[in-house]
Input
Amino acid sequence: MFCANAQARMVVLFAVGSLRTLVTGRRWWLAGLEMLVVGVLAATVAYAVGNLLSRIV
Output
């Protein structure tokens, strides 16, 4: 279930990034990839910080 949820989030991040091109005029695949990478990195950092804090507290 977790993998399906993660894949769905990645698809949505890419889609939202691609839709940004309607405003910015950039290449759709580059904007989608940028949003995907930033979103995955943010989720990874948030998970790591939460995991670290749960071990401390």
Observations:
- The radius of gyration is 14 Å.
- Residues 2-56 form one domain.
- The chain has one domain: 2-56.
- DSSP finds three helices and no strands in the chain.
